[in-house]
Give the backbone structure.
Amino acid sequence: MNKRTILSMLKMATFISLSSAMITSCNSAGNSNQKIDASKIKVEGTMEAELTAPPLVPKPVGKRAAMKLTVNMEIIEKEGVMADGVKYIYWTFGGSVPGSFIRTRVGDEVEFHLKNHPNNKLPHNIDLHAVTGPGGGAASSFVAPGHEVVFSFKVLNQGLFVYHCATAPVGMHIANGMYGLILVEPEGGLPLVDKEYYVMQGDFYTKGANGEKGLQSFDMGKAIKEEPDYVVFNGKVGSLTGDNAITAKVGETVRLFVGNGGPNLVSSFHVIGEIFDNVNIEGGSLVNHDVQTTLIPAGGSSIVDFKCEVPGTFIIVDHSIFRTFNKGSLGMLKVSGDENKTLYSGKQTDEVYHPEGGTIQNMPADENAVKLSKPTTLAERIEDGKSIYNRTCFACHQPTGEGLPNTFPPLAKSDFLNANTTSAIEFILKGKSGEIVVNGKKYNSVMTAQVLTDDEISNVLTFVYSSWGNSKKVVSPEMVAAVRKTIK
C-alpha cells in the first residue's frame, strides 16, 4: 500500500469521524423533536381533569407524570343568545359553545364519561381528533338522553385537537355548537406564558336573516350552500368584546388556543396590531415564527403566542373581513400599561396632501334584506336601535360607545352629539370627513354614509342618546325624513 493511498484512507476516516460527531451532536440537540413512543409511557396515579368554559383554560400540565385522567362531560341542549334579540337552541358539550376545554399530556390514559342530559331530545356522541381509534371515540360513545357511556383511550400525539359530535347528520350537530378543543402537551409541558385563552370560531345558519329577532332554528339549506348568517368566536356575537374582552398587561406574553369548529368555513385568524411570535402550525409540533395571519381549517386548530409591547385595544378577527364586520367574528384583547412612544407613537400629524373631492362613499343597499315588523314603544325602539348599533356601529365606536383613541370619536357623554341632533342625523345620511372636536379632543377620520331607513336611523340614534350618559333625546322617523329632504 503506497503512501498516497494511506493518506487518502486517513482523510476518509477523519471525515467519517467528524460527520458522526456532527450527527450525534445534532441528534442530541434535537431530542425534543424526536417521536416518543407514548404507548410505552406508564401512568403514575389518577386524577380528575379540570374542564373550563371559554375563554378560560385549565392550568398548565407542567412537569407532572402521565396519569389516569378521568373526564366527566355532560351534553346539554339549551337556549342561548346568538346576538342582541336573537336566540338559538345550542347543542353543547358542557353547557358552552365551544365545549369545555380539556387539557392532557402525552401518555395520559383518559377515562371518558359522557352523559346525555335527560331533558335533551336527541342522542349524541363525541369524536375526539386526539384519539387513535375507530371514529375518534365516536364508535364507542353513542349515548341516548338520560344515559352515560364510558370509554378509554391513551393520548399518543402532542398537539391541539378538535372534538365534535359525529351523530348523523354530523354537519347539523356541529353547526348547532357541538365542538371544542382538547390539548395534549408534550412531556415537561409547554413553555410557560403569562396569559392563556380559548378562542374557537364557528359558522351558524338560521332560518331568519342576520339580526332577525326571536328564537331562530337551524337552516339545512343555508348550511349545504355554505351561506352562514353568523360567523362568530365562542358561540355568539360579542362573546369577546366590551366587558367580555380578554385582557393582558404590557410586557406579558399571551397564548391563544384557537380552534375552528366550522362546520364549513376556513378561518384566516389575525390580531390587528400584533404579530404572532410563534405559531404551532395546524395545532401540531411544527412551529413557525413572525406570522401575521394563520390559516385554520374547519376541524383544525392553531396555537399562537405573542408579547404585548404597547397598550391599547387589539381587535381579533377572521381576516375574511366581511365576516368580522357583518357577521360577528370580532373579539378584543385589551392591554393595559405604560405607552412606549418609540415602539408606537400614535398619530403625530394629519394633513391633506391631495384633495379627494367631495364624494363620500356610500354603502350599497341590500335588496334582499328581510323586512321586519316595526317596533312601536320607546323600549322596543331602543332595543331595536341597540341591535342596529351592534351590527353597524360598534366596530368603530366600540360596544360601550368609547370609540377608538385618536381614530374614532366617542359617542358616550359626547358634547358634539348632544349639542345638535340634526348634525347627528346628517352624519349618518351623508357621511363625514374632516376634523371634528369631541369632548375637547380632535378627530380626523372618515365615516361612510349609511344606507338605513328613517326608522332605523331614528331608533339607533334614540338608543345612543339613551345610553352612556347622553341626553335621553328621542329621535323620530319624521325628524330623519325632514333632514333627508335637505340633502342633495
Residues 127 and 166 are 6 Å apart (CA to CA).
